[in-house]
Structure formats: C-alpha cells, structure tokens
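FW: tagging you since you asked about this chain on Friday. Here's the raw sequence from the shared folder, copied in full. Didn't touch anything.
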Amino acid sequence: MKKAYYKRYFFISEEIEEALCHLSTKKDTCGIDGLYLSELRDDWNINGNRYLSLLLEGKYKPGIVQIYKIVNYTGKKGGPYLHLIPLTALFLRCLATSLEKL
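HL: got it, structure written out here
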C-alpha cells in the first residue's frame, strides 16, 4: 500500500485522538523507552509529525514487547503481561480502530 493510503485511513487525527483517549484509560506504566502512558499525549503533541514521517517512510521500528508471567508464593502463574513502548501501543491502537471500521 502507498504511504498516502496509510496516512489517509489509519493515521488521521481522529484515529490518533481516539487511540490517545483509549490509552489514557490504561494503567500509567512506563514503557521500556522511559516514557509513561500519561506523558504520551504531550510527547505526541511535540513529536507526532516526526513520528508519523518515520513510520510512513518505513524507518520507525516498533518497540520491543516484553512478555512475562508472574509466579506467586503458591506457585500459581499469572499473566501473561505485556509491556509495550507507548508509541508502539498508539500506532497499534490506531490500526486496530481503523480496521474495525472497515
């Protein structure tokens, strides 16, 4: 697909705003890049155009996802739990909401 298609259908401002609102309801965790979910909107307002350019040029590399399970004192396992880089979570949420509407 062409870059214009991605930008037109997946990364329009309404989709990004919806993704930011959705992520703001999640527990405020710190991504492995050091950015907290609560800081994502401010970071996006400052750097969003640069992030989109990197993504559309194919230069953005999705963040590492850490998957782990917690074992409590009785040996019962919980999880799996995921840690995403907040920016990657934002892009994934934009894609998910856009695809749901197709």
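FW: Residues 54 and 60 are 5 Å apart (CA to CA).
HL: agreed, and The chain is about 50% helix and 15% strand.
FW: great, closing this out.
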